[in-house]
């Protein structure tokens, strides 16, 4: 209400004026009364520092409010949390029987943002002091300070601001603290100056840790006056410029009650005398914040950046976001690392850098009795720096790695930066690295180690060279500071990492560098090798099993958590199927290897405990706010929400009425008329004046024609009719339409060709808005002024792309010919509460269609940006396949629970079931518009098959039934009339000519394909086990390329976006004269009625 309207007539102290948000659960507001001696003493110290002249009575009580991790309204709901800036600040009201003081505390990093959105407008935050009107007879504005400003320095200003409030009910003594002398404070070194200015600070506290730490003795303070906004003769406010520790008024937030959510889901939280710690439960290991199941293989993903000089070359080879993927078999200590997109110029030399992946081996090394690997000791969050020196050339290279913990897919995330020089290794050379040992020395929060290693280089001509390198490394991490005895590293001061079976290779064909090694962690001076297979790694347990040692060489294998079997063979347990209610009500369970993931259903969000799904009435539409055209519903946590009227309306949010701005003074120019509209108003200059209505000037002569009017006059003048008649344009000539002010109307039409399109303010056509002769003109809304919400769909540039589904999103990868431009891959669409299965593309309207099984629903969105549009939302259970006939404008889909194949118009209307018999698990479906054919696969394990029919449901036949197992993926190549499929059971990709039924193998030995698409000579398929998109050259019969998304999880449907539609035709191009559904068939068409007919439908066969 008062933001932007200060200074005001009344007295006011503003802690922070702005629209702040804590609805995402990260922001918290705490308040309490506190009369403990320590708090009262610290409050008195601050008051004395602000008011050194007078006698200050020690407060008898305080009221403390803390705003922690608050975000600006509208910035915390994007899901990624990457760009959300947060602020923490505090108000302390200290009082006695006769007076009161306000103490405002802004910690280090101060205000991290300057603006919030109020009623759609960007408003500057305000914080400070307003004395109001002063004087008895002649009122004038008193002292006014605002510590926020557009000045960038104010973002990081920290300190304490002290004000005297006085006593109620009149509060006539309100005044800011003054600086008149330099008092001496016991225990601190205090200096008062008037010349120093505040300097910005640039430190970022760890987001997952509390911002308040324990009080440090001997805190160094210096009191610096802040420059006031008023005249310099006014007294100045005291500000403490320090690394302010607000814990002088802190809550005991270091308890499990406040921090249990910071522990791993597989850990217990325990309170200690000074704080809390997280401890992994039995069967899991880690630091409590990151816990993984014993025996379970681990994946690490990350990016590699940096610059590397090779040999004597003067210029470096730059690495930019190269994908790094690692896989560790935890029960035998074997680690595999691969880095992609490595140039030939540096690939051979990178073979020497096995230490790049050595830290991954250390993290999950096979533990000898009484010793622990890196992850057991410190978890998955740490920093590593290694200095490597190669001999005899004395080349130096630095490796910096940040390990960032476990992501939502249970994968560890890391980043690597390389800087330095490597010895030159000729292309085609092989490198063999000898086994080595590495001594690790442990102290709290710090590990150091060093080692040396010998290696041989065998060049392509057979020349062998033996060389060596040394390295030193340091690892920095954070243990729980409250449990001294509980950290294993407290007793393990030294350990030895033994590395052998080292394999390095540069794959020049695929531009991959690969490392593999076996790792064991144990004592330093032990020469006796452990004979038990659990400690040697030669046990034969499944990779998802724990090896438990017994007496002598006896041992047992037991499947790790989330897997079942005899330990020699373990298979994943589908917890979602076995315990359907495991995620609770209003949630969707998604099975993961060894675990599960719970996601809230549409219209629900996680509560603050991160487990319970509560209704979001705003998203669900079950709120009682006024209609969206007048009011905004804002979710505030739990099941609560707030209704507020939009700008231009007034009311309580549940009922909003239009504000007649024309009744308010000075809305328009004096020579303009005001017209009220819903939520707004317009101004128009009166006759004899011109302007925009807000500024009007007299018109002394005929107004100069606008650009639109000039173009219209030119078109009309080019007429061949006699001048004596009213001018009209030449037949076939386009004449622009102008409004009464001479501006281009947003929608323009060319009557002769029967087309309409949208234009911008300059009359330029807006791309992709032109309609045909029988289409209605597009609805065009001029672009709004100011910031707009981020659309669900991110527009993409023209060209050919691969689109693939990955759980709650659809990503796109540009194609350069047949090469995937992996570095340019990015999400097209985010639907975080959905599981997207199949995707299809309409080349006519440039729309992507998809099915999701959580709605369930079929939806669409434009590649050029915009909103998600529901297509089919009723009578669906598990829609898993989708196909489009772009000529007949038809949509086909399979439902594996209803066991049906259905068809409708592209907008979801005129829906009809084509088949509902002899189907068990129908999934992929594709069309052949030129022949009016439909193909689908049924992965029924007892009788898998691929079938064909006409699009009208006639002519159903089984095309393939032999040598099939799990035909998941299906695609049709229009150009070559080839039907291809990917089978996850036979692990093959095959193709056939459906007309002559000639069948051939394309590639064998693949892993677990899910979906398949054809593009030119290539086939592209998604693979569940590799979690990748794989390219196959049909002519060469081999895989040529692999794309691994940055976030690894199962990939589902895949399709392509062609630059133009295939040049094919069928009899339903203009709906074939049918009243409802026109369904093509070989050599003709069928007019069919939808299942829900209105009685006006006529069926016929043509």
Structure in words:
The protein is mainly beta and 1102 residues long. It has 9 helices and 79 strands. The strands form 24 sheets. Strands 21-22-23-33-32-29-30-31-25-26-27 form an 11-stranded mixed β-barrel. Strands 2, 3, 4, 5, 6, 13 and 14 form a 7-stranded antiparallel beta sheet that branches. Strand 44 and strand 45 (656-658) form a beta hairpin.
Key traits:
single chain; 1102 residues; mainly beta; eleven-stranded mixed barrel; seven-stranded antiparallel beta sheet; globular
- Uncertain segments of ≥5 residues (pLDDT<50)? 77-83, 150-157, 179-248, 719-731, 774-794
Task: Supply the number of helical segments.
Answer: 9
Overall form: globular
Number of strands: 79
Instruction: State the strand order across the main sheet.
Output: 21-22-23-33-32-29-30-31-25-26-27
Summing up helix and strand content along with how strands pair, one would put the structural category as mainly beta
Radius of gyration (CA) equals 36 Å
């Amino acid at each position: 209400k008062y933001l932007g309207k200060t200074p005001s007539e009344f007295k006011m102290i503003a802690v922070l004026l702005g629209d702040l948000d804590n609805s995402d659960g990260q922001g918290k507001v705490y308040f309490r009364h506190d009369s403990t001696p320590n708090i009262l003493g610290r409050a008195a110290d601050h008051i004395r520092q602000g008011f050194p002249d007078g006698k200050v009575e020690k407060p008898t009580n305080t009221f403390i409010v803390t705003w922690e991790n608050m975000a600006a309204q509208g910035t915390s709901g994007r899901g990624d949390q990457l760009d959300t800036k947060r602020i923490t600040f505090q108000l302390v009201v200290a009082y006695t029987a006769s007076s009161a003081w306000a103490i405002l505390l802004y910690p280090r990093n101060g205000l991290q943002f300057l603006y919030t959105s109020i009623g759609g407008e960007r408003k500057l935050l305000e914080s400070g002091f307003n004395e109001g009107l002063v004087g008895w007879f002649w009122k004038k504005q008193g002292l006014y300070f605002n510590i926020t400003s557009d000045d960038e320095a104010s973002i990081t200003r920290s300190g304490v601001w002290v004000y005297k409030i006085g006593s109620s009910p009149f509060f006539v003594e309100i005044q800011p603290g003054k600086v008149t002398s330099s008092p001496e404070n016991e225990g601190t070194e205090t200096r008062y100056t008037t010349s120093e200015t505040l300097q910005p600070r640039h430190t970022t506290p760890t987001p997952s840790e509390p911002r308040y730490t324990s009080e440090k003795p001997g805190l160094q303070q210096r009191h610096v006056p802040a420059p006031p906004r008023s005249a310099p003769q006014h007294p100045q406010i005291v500000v403490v410029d320090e690394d302010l520790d607000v814990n002088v008024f802190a809550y005991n937030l270091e308890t499990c009650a406040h921090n249990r959510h910071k522990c791993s889901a597989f850990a217990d939280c325990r309170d200690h005398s000074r704080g809390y710690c997280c401890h992994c439960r039995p069967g899991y290991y880690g630091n409590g914040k990151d816990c993984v199941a014993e025996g379970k293989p681990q994946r690490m993903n990350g990016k590699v950046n940096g610059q590397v000089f090779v040999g004597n070359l003067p210029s470096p080879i730059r690495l930019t976001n190269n994908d790094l993927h690692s896989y560790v078999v935890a029960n035998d200590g074997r680690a595999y690392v691969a880095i992609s997109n490595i140039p030939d110029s540096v690939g051979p030399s990178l073979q020497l850098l096995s230490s790049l992946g050595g830290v991954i081996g250390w993290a999950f090394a096979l533990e000898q009795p009484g010793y622990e690997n890196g992850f057991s000791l410190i978890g998955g969050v740490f920093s590593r720096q290694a200095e490597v020196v190669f001999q005899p050339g004395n080349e130096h290279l630095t490796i910096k790695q940040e390990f960032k913990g476990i992501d939502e897919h249970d994968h560890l995330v890391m980043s690597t930066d390389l800087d330095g020089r490597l010895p030159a290794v000729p292309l085609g050379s092989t490198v063999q690295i000898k086994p080595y040992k590495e001594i690790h020395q442990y102290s709290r929060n710090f590990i150091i180690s060093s080692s040396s290693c010998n290696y041989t280089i065998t060049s392509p001509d057979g020349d062998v060279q033996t060389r060596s390198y040394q390295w030193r490394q340091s690892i920095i991490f954070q243990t729980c500071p409250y449990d001294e005895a509980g950290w294993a590293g407290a007793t393990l001061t030294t350990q030895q990492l033994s590395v052998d079976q080292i394999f390095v290779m540069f794959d020049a064909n695929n531009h991959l560098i690969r490392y593999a090694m076996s790792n064991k962690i144990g004592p330093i001076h032990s020469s006796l090798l452990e004979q038990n297979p659990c400690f040697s790694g030669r046990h034969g347990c499944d990779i998802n099993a724990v090896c438990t040692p017994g007496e002598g060489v006896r041992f047992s294998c037991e499947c790790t958590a989330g897997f079942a079997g005899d330990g020699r063979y373990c298979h994943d347990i589908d917890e979602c199927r076995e315990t359907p209610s495991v995620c609770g009500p209003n949630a969707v369970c998604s099975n993961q290897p060894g675990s599960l993931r719970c996601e809230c259903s549409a219209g629900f969000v996680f509560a603050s405990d991160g487990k319970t799904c509560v209704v979001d009435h705003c998203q669900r539409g079950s709120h009682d706010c006024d209609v969206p055209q007048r009011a905004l519903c804002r979710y505030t946590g739990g099941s609560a929400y707030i209704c507020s009227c939009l700008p231009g309306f007034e009311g309580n949010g549940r009922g909003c009425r239009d504000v007649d701005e024309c009744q308010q003074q000075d809305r328009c120019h004096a020579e303009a008329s005001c017209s009220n509209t819903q939520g707004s108003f317009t101004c128009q200059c009166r006759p004899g004046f011109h302007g925009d209505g807000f500024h009007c000037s007299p018109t002394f002569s005929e107004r100069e024609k606008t650009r639109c009017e000039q173009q219209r006059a030119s078109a009309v003048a080019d007429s061949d009719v006699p001048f004596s008649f009213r001018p009209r344009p030449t037949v076939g000539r386009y004449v622009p339409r102008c409004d009464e002010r001479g501006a281009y109307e947003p929608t323009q039409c060319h009557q002769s060709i029967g087309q309409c399109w949208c234009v911008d303010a300059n009359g330029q056509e807006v791309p992709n808005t032109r309609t045909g002769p029988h289409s209605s003109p597009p609805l065009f809304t001029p672009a709004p002024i100011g910031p707009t919400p981020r659309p669900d769909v991110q527009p993409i540039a023209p060209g050919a792309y691969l689109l693939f589904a990955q759980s709650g999103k659809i990503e796109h990868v540009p194609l350069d010919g047949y090469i995937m431009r992996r570095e340019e891959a990015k999400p097209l669409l985010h639907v975080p509460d959905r599981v997207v299965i199949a995707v299809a593309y309409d080349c006519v309207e440039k729309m992507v269609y998809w099915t999701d099984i959580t709605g369930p629903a079929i939806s669409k969105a434009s590649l050029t940006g915009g909103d998600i549009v529901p297509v089919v939302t009723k009578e669906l259970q598990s829609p898993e396949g989708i196909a489009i006939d772009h000529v007949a404008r038809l949509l086909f889909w399979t439902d594996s629970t209803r066991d049906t194949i259905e068809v409708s118009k592209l907008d979801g209307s005129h829906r009809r079931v084509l088949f509902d018999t002899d189907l068990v698990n129908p999934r992929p479906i594709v069309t052949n518009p030129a022949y009016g054919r439909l193909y689908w696969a049924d992965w029924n394990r007892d009788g898998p098959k691929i079938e064909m029919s006409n699009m009208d449901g006639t002519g159903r036949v089984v095309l393939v039934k032999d040598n099939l197992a799990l035909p998941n993926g299906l695609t049709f190549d229009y150009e070559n009339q080839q039907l291809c499929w990917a089978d996850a059971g036979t692990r093959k990709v095959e193709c056939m000519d459906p007309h002559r039924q000639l069948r051939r193998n394309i590639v064998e030995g693949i892993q677990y394909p899910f979906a398949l698409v054809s593009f030119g000579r290539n086939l592209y398929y998604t693979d569940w086990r590799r979690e990748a998109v794989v390219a196959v050259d049909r002519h060469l019969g081999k895989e040529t390329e692999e794309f691994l998304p940055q976030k690894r999880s199962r990939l589902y449907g895949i399709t392509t976006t062609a630059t133009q539609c295939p040049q094919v035709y069928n009899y339903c191009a203009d709906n074939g004269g049918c009243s409802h559904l026109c369904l093509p068939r070989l050599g003709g068409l069928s007019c069919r009625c939808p299942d829900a007919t209105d009685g006006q439908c006529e069926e016929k066969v043509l």
